[in-house]
Design a protein that fits this description.
The chain folds into two domains: 31-306, Pectate Lyase C-like (3 Solenoid); 453-753, Beta Barrel (Lipocalin). It has 754 residues and is mainly beta. It has a 24-stranded mixed sheet that branches. The protein is elongated, with a radius of gyration of 42 Å. Helices cover 5% and strands 61% of the residues. This is Autotransporter domain-containing protein. Keywords: Signal.
Amino acid sequence: MKSERVFMRAAPWPIAVFLGTALTCEGGWASYLRPGSEATVSYADTPEDWRLNNARLVVTPGGETGNIDARWNSTVDIDGGTATSRGSAGVLLETSRAVINNATITAQNITSSTSEASFGLHLYRYDTDTGVSSAVVTNSIISGAGRGINAFDGAEVSLVNTTVKGNAGVDTVGPISGGVGMVLGGSRATMSGSTVVGENNGVVMVSGRTGAQSSAASLVVADGSAVVGEKGSAILVSAGNAPAVETRIDVANGSTLKGGNGVILEVENAAIATFNVSASQLEGDVLVQEGSTAKLSLDSNASLTGKVTNATSLAIDDSSAWIMQGHSSVNSLLLNGGTVDLRGTTPEFSRLTLGQLEGNGTFAMGTDLAAGESDFLEVTGTAVGSYQLLVQNTGVDPVQANDTQTLVHVAEGDAQFSLLGGKVDFGTYAYQLEQNVAEGGTDWSLVKTDELSESSQAVIGLFSAAPTIWYGESATLRTRMGELRNGTDQGGGWIRSYGNKFNMSAGGGVAYKQVQQGVAFGADAPLPSNEGQWLVGLMGGYSKSDLDLQQGTSGTVDSYYLGAYSTWLADDGFYVDALIKANRFQNHSEVRMSDGEKAKGNYNTAGVGASVEVGKHIKLADDWFVEPFAQVSGLLVGGESYDLDNGMRASSNRADSLLGKAGTQVGRTFTLDDGAFVQPYMKVAAAHEFVSRNRVSINENRFTNDLSGSRVELGAGVAAQMTDVLQLHADVDFMKGRNIEQPWGVSVGVRYSW
């Protein structure tokens, strides 16, 4: 390797002062490469400083150097090497190029002078007549005392899987303080899978320096990368001492920005910045000082969580969202289907002030009508387009005197606002959005309606479900009791599966659909009787009822029950059936409110009911029979109180029922071989529910569950005696009443005689 020792002259004073590039090496000597020459540093060479003049320096794996000063179209190739400087740049490129891979470049500050700085990688050019400097850095670590990378005058930097750190060394040169990961003055930097950290700011961007150089725009492209300002803003854009030109920042593909002061982008000193975020989720504030310009955009599933102050414009596409954290202001907002969430992640309400609004999209807003507070959107200029308000729901009633809450004020324009979901649930009732002419423009306000909220409907529906559950469970037992009237007088065990659907009308308090599925089982035995036949038994079972109150609001009731029953049949066909049954109802409601959020609540109640049926089994010619009957059933269900997790309070005094029924059953018995038979039948009955005043209280508002009224019941079935000890059964039912309808009911069962 051939080198020549020469004395290094310092750079011109204005450049040295502004850029912090005091180039005089310790002792003033270095290995010098003349124009056209080339040298290689390997692992066996002694570390020393290098000065290149239109030359090339290659550092191979394990090679170590001091600072590298490359000028006038020189080339530096470092692969697996180390460059460590003391008091100057680790690698300086003046109108030169570097390819750096698997390297470590460190610049140490060894002086207390306020005009001295050490940059890890320093790129610039002497004047406009020379070419720009460039560096491609891969899988490397660069650190500097003051600045990790300092790039000016159109320099181009490419970072791939590289870490850059700027320590807060002695660096007060020019308008930029020390502790910056990367400074760009009219230069471009692309980052892929890389991290830039500054003890103060992560990245500082300014226009090109004044004097011999013209102003130029700076550009940062962060692709899957991170920029961190440990104490200050992640990215600071300033016009510096040069005329302001537009600076651009592209943040893409999962990149992150973090500012120790909570600011991810700060624009000051009359600077101009364009900030594009794509497919990244950023957290932090954007601060634009008066007199500066910042144009922001969010697209391709991007999000910004933070406060925006004094931004010039913001555009949000239909896959992206801005989640506000505190009061914000934007001169012009364009929504291309995007979302602005004023609710943020804190309990405080926010105010968004816009100069102009256009496009279409969604504003998510929080409210507390009980306190008369909410998020607020104000457009001081013109608003055009169509927007939806996604308003946070609650189960808490507002104060009586505050049935109206203004959410939006627009000074001018024909913008239209509507509620997502068509309404908002506030406690017991739903609210709608109304437009009103107000002083200085138009207001959009929430106004109370007489329509029940989704939560209220779920509460009323659950409280009214117990009677239909009890009757659905008990209906299958009637067929078991009827087996004695078929001439089967021995006891046995039995099991039945059943399902029912009920439609409840709004006249009963709230409209909903109820589907019940269950299983019942039991055993009975005959008792001695001087007259007729007497059978007694025990039964139990479980059913699950699903309530559908539309729009995603639902309820579930799990019912567990035990009972006793008895049938007495006289010789002339007269019979008496009796049943007493106790239930435990486990109730659960899940409410999908109009804002898409869910509220839940659950409670348990107990009930006991009894039924007595009298009738006569009359045999007719050709094995036909007719069986007229009358029945009275009663149910008592205890009241209960419970809360939904959205703040709603609900209670019920009871859910009782008193049902009278009269009807007849007609069928025919077809005798088969060996004593077997098949018995199809049809039934018809008229029933009347007498209880009409089951009370429900929701947030101290009282309502009545009314299932009273008359109804008609129809049914058909078949019983088949297969052997002396085995009988099968199946039937279907239909019922229609004023406040209740049963489109279908089915049951199948089997009995085995002892």
